[in-house]
Design a protein that fits this description.
The chain has about 140 residues and is an alpha+beta fold. It is about 30% helix and about 35% strand. The protein has one domain: Clavaminate synthase-like (Double-stranded beta-helix, 4-Layer Sandwich). It is globular, with a radius of gyration of 17 Å.
Length: about 140
C-alpha cells in the first residue's frame, strides 16, 4: 500500500489531513470514513441535550499503549498528557455541529468514572457505525 499525505492548513495551522492512495493491494485496502456531522444530526434531541456540555479525555494508550513498557507509558504520558475535547464541536465557519469521539482514543467523560462514561461513549460510537453516515473508498 502506498499513500501520499497532504496537510490542510489555514493561517499556518493544520486543520486536517488527506491521505491519497497511490497503490492499493489486490484484495482489501478499503478506507471507511464517517460523516460525524450527519451522525450528530441523526441523534434524538434528548441525547443531544445530554451530551451538549460534556467533554471527553482522549488518550493514545488504548491503541498504542500495549506496545510500550510501563516506563515508556509513563514517559509518553508526561510528554504528551491526554487532551480534553468537547464531545460536540461546532465548525468555526459553518456553525454546524459534529461529534468528536471514537473508540480508539476516547478514555472517559470528564468528571465521570470509566464505568459511568462507557454508556455515552458507546452510544455515540455506535451512532458512527450506521452505514447511512459512512463512505467507503477503495
Amino acid at each position: 500500500m502506498t499513500w501520499q499525505h497532504f496537510d490542510v492548513t489555514r493561517m499556518g495551522a493544520t486543520i486536517g489531513a488527506i491521505l491519497h492512495g497511490i497503490k492499493g493491494p489486490d484484495v482489501g485496502g478499503e478506507t471507511l470514513f464517517t460523516d460525524m456531522y450527519a451522525a450528530y444530526d441523526g441523534l434524538p434531541d434528548d441525547v443531544k441535550e445530554k451530551i451538549e456540555s460534556l467533554d471527553v479525555e482522549h488518550t493514545f494508550m488504548h491503541t498504542f499503549g500495549s506496545f510500550l513498557t510501563e516506563e515508556q507509558k509513563a514517559g509518553m504520558l508526561q510528554a504528551y498528557p491526554p487532551p480534553t475535547h468537547p464531545i460536540v464541536c461546532t465548525h468555526d465557519v459553518t456553525g454546524r455541529r459534529h461529534l468528536y469521539v471514537n473508540r480508539g482514543f476516547a478514555s472517559h467523560v470528564v468528571g465521570r468514572g470509566s464505568e459511568e462514561s462507557r454508556e455515552p461513549i458507546d452510544l455515540l460510537c455506535r451512532q458512527a457505525d450506521y452505514p447511512e453516515y459512512q463512505c467507503r473508498f477503495h
